[in-house]
Amino acid sequence: MNVAYYPGCVAKGGAPELYRSVKLILEPLGITPTELFDAACTGAGVLTERNPLLADALNGRTFAMAEKRGMPIMTICSTCTGTMLACNERLQDAGYRGRVNELLAPEKYEYQGTTQIKHLLWILVEGVGLERVRALVRRPLSGLRVAPFYGCYLVRPSALVSADHPDRDTYLEQLVAALGGEPVEYESARKCCGFPVITMNRDAGLRMTGRNIEDAKSHGADVMVTPCPLCHLNLDGQQHEAARALGVPLGVPILHLPQLIGLAFGFTPRQLGMSHHLVRPGAVLERYAESATV
Predict the structure, then answer these.
(1) Residue 28 burial (CB < 10 Å; 0-12/13-18/19+)?
(2) CA-to-CA distance for 9 and 139, rounded, in angstroms?
(3) 129-285 domain in CATH 3.40.50.11810?
(4) Radius of gyration of the chain from its Cα atoms, rounded to whole angstroms
(5) Strand arrangement, sheet containing 182-183
(6) β-pair type (73-75, 145-148)
């Protein structure tokens, strides 16, 4: 399967362990990425609020790159996915797309409106298939209780992200089970991580973050897994402060989706860059990996 790979900003800067882990798992999955090195940031929705035409032009340029290669775009970030999907929907209007293409013309790009945008999670379930994923497991995550954390953009708005696949809001649970782990059900799995709130109201944002983690922990989660690097930065990077804001201990390791897959495929925590995490997962994972020192 050939894909135009769009890693996004965070995986190339704030979460290099995610970028590294994706590289490790794609080959055994039979996914061949062509990275869009010249693509711009999606704007994460913020740019759309300030200058929607500019945001759509930047994303339309990325869509045109993939379209020229005849490949769907594969993202590894929920925020990128949601932003791109919303933009692509607007660009289905031929008149508006023409305005955007006028801005792209100096670089000789023209978008025809045919590019598909798919998160890695969707590709795994809908394209690769869970049977193939299950066949690649070398170190089943037996007994590991994993709390999925979707965040916002992979489940909302449903008309945009799951109209043709209404069970996409269960894909993380399905994947955890395919890897041999035990998915944890808890109320906060599809709530906002608090990241957008922290810059506006830090205390409220930290409390949101902490409540999500506390909910997963209270339901017996050993770890949480997220398909969004921004959620990861918040749930992992802000967890110590979130615990202070709530006045409760947390200490729940947060894994990127490709890291969880990589563990089950037989890669070590060190290979998957888990030493970058602020909440170190070694104490939990040593039960499931022969080389769990991070």
Answers:
(1) middle
(2) 31
(3) yes
(4) 19
(5) 182-183, 145-148, 223-226, 254-256
(6) unpaired
Per the DSSP assignment, residues forming a β-bridge with 118 are: 74
- Region 126-154 average pLDDT: 96
> What is the residue extent of each domain of the chain?
2-119, 129-285
Q: To which residue do tokens 């200490």 refer? A: 251
**CA angle, residues 219, 221, 226, in degrees to nearest 5:** 115
Please say whether the beta carbons of 69 and 33 come within 8 A. Answer: no
Mean pLDDT rounded to a whole number for the chain: 94
Please answer whether residues 8 and 76 qualify as being in contact, where contact means their C-beta atoms are separated by less than 8 angstroms: yes
> Is the confidence at residue 290, as pLDDT, over 80?
no
Residue 39 DSSP code: P
What CATH number labels 2-119? 1.20.1050.140
At 288, the pLDDT band (50, 70, 90 cuts) reads low
What confidence tier does 159 reach under pLDDT thresholds 50, 70, 90?
very high
Distance CA 14, CA 231 (A): 12
Q: Do domains 2-119 and 129-285 have the same CATH topology?
A: no
Locate 23 and state its tokens. 């590289």
Determine which helix (DSSP H) or strand (DSSP E) holds 2, and give its type and residue range: strand 2-6
Backbone phi and psi for residue 4, each to the nearest 5 degrees, phi listed first = -85, 110
Q: How confident is the model at residue 45 (pLDDT cuts 50, 70, 90)?
A: confident
Does residue 293 register a pLDDT over 80? Answer: no
Residue spans of alpha helices (H) in 139-201: 158-161, 171-178, 195-198
Phi, psi dihedral angles at 192 (to 5 degrees): -70, 140
pLDDT in tens, 198-226: 888 999 999 999 999 999 999 999 999 99
Cβ neighbours of residue 3 closer than 8 Å, sequence gap 6 or more: 31, 32, 33, 34, 71, 72, 73, 74, 118, 123
- Please state the rounded mean pLDDT for residues 121-145: 97
